[in-house]
Specification:
With about 900 residues, this protein is an alpha+beta fold. Helices cover about 20% and strands about 30% of the residues. The longest helix is centred in the N-terminal third of the chain and has 24 residues.
């Protein structure tokens, strides 16, 4: 008996030791609320909480969790969970867990931790996380007045080329007690900078994110406890124009929307150590001036800054503001006040110029070496009144001067006037440019490369994807895409950041948003954009081509407005976000019904607007093709795409558990359209559709409209067109290219996809790179067609290329049955022409890695699967003896082993794996 107890004690000690070691190797990290890190001022009553598990061992699965939430950090640390204790919940869910505790009130602080149980033991998050609630009700902004200055000043121009000086606001306050906590809630339109006691609050730029201000206005929240002191304090703001006082005033008012002069509303909420509270609000006791150094700030035309007019200490206490005006009460913008649930923009990187060269006229051309989006910082010395002019462009003319025709009427010019007080460093505040080259004139001395730094500006979101292969052209295309995407994130996805456009065109992101999601954590950006689209919808159901509708383009079609549905599907597939589907389903259905009722004739969708936009033209000099053989029927495009959207709507209805009548509606309408489509467009004698363009055949095949017994024949026509008619080159436009690469691979021709991806002759993505592009062009022949029609930073022609890079070449794909990468499908096309691929993607569960390299005799594949997820891995052999997994021969008796379509398929749990396959 004594020996038994000794043995039992030894077992218990051993188990405890094993559990302790497991806990040391497993941790809980990256606690997020609404996919944000420690957000201030959210307005979601039941926010979603998420975390990641990190482990340096294989096969880690969460089995249960316990979330504890408290109103103070002290309560949390002492385990007084006065807001929510979920209790031990048996679940493997670690993403988007809905808060189900006490009602969260206005300005409520919440501190939280999570304890998880895994198949390896119990682990508690080592660090707490925090979120706070915003101002939840419109009424709680009571007595907070909108203030502004609604007049033009000397030097301003309310014209096509609008010019308006920045507004400076200030107010001194006296805090009579010691401050315990303080937060600022600010709506500064169009753009703002906030200061307390001379210090800028936050590292954001170009804030807040743009919206249609008549529909919704975003407020930002900052914890400013450390910036305030007992006694006198100074609050200051600068307001820029942004999209509020829009770039073109008194010009095409039927098209261009503007909202008025800049204005602001602010609350400073102070809690004192004795428990009392105070709110300081904007009112007419604030002072304002326009007589500051920012003479103009226009997103198209640039910023003018006169350093001689700088106002020293204007945002500190004891400043003499007698010459300033009392702020005016002004009308509110009209839109509902909402917390901003996506990050602001930020300076996300720097670019050093690579060359500076003097021109015959005495100016200097600066080459950044990269087409970028942001602005230029300069460093100089000179006399008071010296004026430096910076003119921005994407390319040069043959004589070495700037090429500016493609900027249209955007002036893209910054002007800095020196104050003459030693070394001066300046950069703009309220504008951005798309540029590679800068013409510098008026520099007091001969400028050097060290006098300039490019600031890269886009939304403060994480880069999540990397990709490298054995093909140099494909690698450069990936780099070009990366630079193009990041430059066009501006609180909304825009196009052409260099010219007088910069609009959130929907058709550019129909499938593009999906590809972008592998490179950037764009979930909150696109969730916000869906709100913009919903707010732009007309009462009868119509959706514009641009949202927010800064340009009034309500023309009705399928392929551009349908982005509303495809982006929601992307957010579900890539991030497991069901909330966007639940939120937007009624509006999406309203649009689907609207289009059916207005444009469905004889079961075909008759309304198209853009066709297969930007098909590569037959001549390098043409902008658009004039060859009817290259043009795909608009009714075919609209009908096929509408059918595609109906399948997504059926999926959404199923996810939502919607009334079965909706599903029957989508099924019935889909079948009618498919029948009518094949009856009208299918040529049974040739086994092709319409005029046999690649897009005409590709859409019905990719979207499931071709009868199964005809699919291979239709695909043969696609292959013939690509290989023979177009000599192995792309011939599709914006619509067809969304499905091209994946369909070629999935029907057995990944080698042809690879040829299109690696081409460097016209038309191809590689042709752009070979001809000096460092981003993606708007036109396939942007260097030879009328250049004034070519944006050299445009993402719409990427189609499904980036999706193909990750899903088909790297083998990183989210299983539709377990979205958000809860389970990964790893099925690379090894037989393309590539000899190696190294790729990674940081999912909501952690980093996924797929690195493979092949020789004539062997395939080596290193895989990393994040904890609490799994992967279905496809290996190119049917002989288990050819496979070595982590230095061990594959055990074919394993239950996770099967053979499917001449491939061995393994289901692997989390961890790192070295796979070797004898070829």
């Amino acid at each position: 008996m004594k020996k038994f107890f000794l043995h039992l004690t030894f077992i218990i000690i051993t188990l405890i030791s094993i559990s302790a070691k497991s806990q040391n190797k497993i941790s809980v990290t990256n606690l997020q609320c609404e996919m944000l890190n420690n957000p201030e001022g959210i307005d979601v009553g039941q926010p979603r909480l998420s975390w990641q598990i990190k482990a340096d061992m294989n096969d880690v699965k969460q089995t249960a969790y316990q979330i504890i939430v408290a109103s103070t950090l002290e309560n949390l640390n002492s385990k007084k969970t006065d807001l929510w204790d979920s209790g031990k919940t048996e679940s493997d869910a670690s993403v988007n867990i809905i808060y189900k505790g006490k009602r969260l009130e206005n300005r409520q602080n919440a501190f939280w931790k999570v304890i998880i149980w895994t198949n390896k033991g119990e682990i508690q998050s080592t660090n707490s996380a925090h979120f706070s609630m915003g101002i939840m009700n419109y009424a709680d902004w009571k007595s907070t007045r909108w203030i502004g200055y609604e007049k033009a000043s000397i030097g301003d121009s309310i014209s096509q080329y609008s010019k308006l000086s920045a507004r400076y606001f200030r107010k001194e306050i006296n805090l009579k007690k010691q401050v315990k906590n303080a937060k600022v809630y600010i709506m500064g339109l169009g753009l703002y900078e906030l200061y307390i006691n001379g210090n800028k609050i936050g590292d954001q730029v170009l804030a807040p994110v743009p919206t249609d201000y008549t529909k919704n206005v975003k407020y930002n929240v900052f914890d400013v406890t450390s910036q305030l002191k007992e006694g006198k304090n100074a609050l200051g703001t600068i307001l820029g124009n942004g999209r509020f006082f829009t770039m073109r005033q008194d010009y095409k008012p039927y098209k261009i929307k503007t909202f008025g002069y800049p204005k602001m509303a602010l609350q400073l909420f102070v809690e004192y150590t004795d428990g009392s509270k105070e709110i300081i609000r904007t009112d007419d006791s604030w002072k304002v001036t326009t007589n500051g150094p920012i003479l103009s700030n226009n997103e198209y035309d640039g910023e003018e800054y006169d350093a001689r007019k700088e106002i020293k200490n204007w945002n500190t206490t004891n400043f003499d503001d007698k010459k300033w005006f009392a702020a005016e009460y002004v009308q509110e913008p009209g839109g509902f006040y909402e917390a901003q649930m996506t990050p602001n923009m930020k300076i996300m990187g720097e670019v050093k110029p690579i060359l500076i060269k003097q021109t015959p006229k005495g100016t200097y051309i600066l080459d950044m070496g990269q087409n970028m989006v942001g602005w230029l910082q300069l460093k100089t010395k000179g006399k008071s009144g010296d004026k430096i002019t910076l003119k921005f462009a994407e390319s040069l003319q043959s004589d070495g001067s700037l090429y500016i025709e493609n900027l249209r009427d955007a002036r893209t010019t910054d002007v800095y006037t020196l104050k003459g007080e030693g070394e001066e460093i300046w950069e703009p505040r309220f504008i951005f440019h798309g540029f590679r080259f800068v013409e510098v004139s008026g520099f007091p001395a001969k400028p050097t490369l060290d006098d300039f730094v490019g600031k890269v500006v886009y939304d403060n979101i994480k880069t999540t994807g990397t990709f490298e292969s054995s093909d140099v052209t494909m690698n450069q295309i990936f780099k070009n895409a990366y630079w193009g995407i990041r430059g066009n994130y501006k609180g909304m996805p825009i196009d052409c950041p260099q010219r007088n456009e910069r609009q959130p065109w929907m058709g550019d992101r129909t499938t593009g948003a999906y590809g972008e999601s592998f490179l950037f954590d764009n979930q909150t950006l696109y969730a916000k954009w869906l709100d913009d689209i919903k707010n732009a919808q007309t009462a009868d159901g119509g959706i514009p081509d641009v949202a927010p509708a800064f340009w009034r383009y309500y023309g009705d079609n399928v392929t551009w407005p349908g982005t509303y549905i495809t982006v929601a599907d992307m957010l579900y597939q890539q991030f497991g976000d069901k909330k966007v589907i639940e939120k937007h389903y009624p509006s999406m259905k309203k649009w689907v019904v609207y289009m059916e009722q207005n444009y469905l004739i004889k079961d075909l969708m008759t309304k198209d607007k853009y066709g297969d936009w930007c098909v590569p033209p037959e001549s390098l000099e043409l902008i658009h093709s004039k060859d009817s053989a290259r043009t795909t029927n608009g009714e075919l495009i609209a009908s096929a795409f509408y059918y595609h959207l109906l399948q997504m709507m059926k999926k959404f209805a199923t996810i939502n558990g919607t009334n079965s009548d909706d599903i029957k509606y989508y099924d019935s309408l889909s079948e009618r359209i498919k029948t009518a489509f094949n009856a009208k467009f299918f040529n049974s004698d040739k086994n092709n559709y319409a005029n046999n363009t690649v897009t005409a055949n590709l859409l019905p095949l990719a979207l499931g409209m071709v009868p199964e017994n005809l699919q291979s024949k239709v695909f043969d026509n696609i292959v013939h067109e690509v290989e023979v008619t177009y000599k192995g080159h792309i011939s599709t436009g914006v619509i067809g290219t969304q499905f091209l690469m994946r369909t070629l691979s999935e029907y057995g021709r990944p080698d042809l996809s690879y040829k299109l991806a690696s081409n460097d002759t016209y038309p191809s993505w590689g042709y752009m790179a070979k001809n000096g592009a460092t981003t993606i062009w708007e036109l396939w022949n942007g260097n030879t067609a009328d250049p004034k029609m070519n944006s050299q930073n445009h993402v719409m022609l990427l189609g499904d290329l980036l999706i193909w890079y990750y899903e088909n070449i790297a083998g990183i794909k989210s299983n539709p049955e377990a979205p958000g990468f809860k389970q990964i499908i790893m099925k690379p096309d090894f037989e393309t022409g590539l000899s190696f691929v190294n790729a990674s993607y940081e999912s909501n569960y952690g980093t996924i890695i797929s690195n493979w390299k092949k020789t004539k005799s062997n395939l080596q594949w290193n895989i990393t699967i994040p904890p609490n997820s799994s992967a279905i891995v496809y290996l190119p052999t049917i002989n288990a003896s050819n496979i070595v997994l982590n230095d061990k021969k594959l055990d074919k008796t394993d239950s996770a082993f099967k053979i499917e379509n001449n491939k061995i398929v393994l289901t692997l749990s989390s961890g790192s794996y070295a796979v070797s396959v004898k070829r």
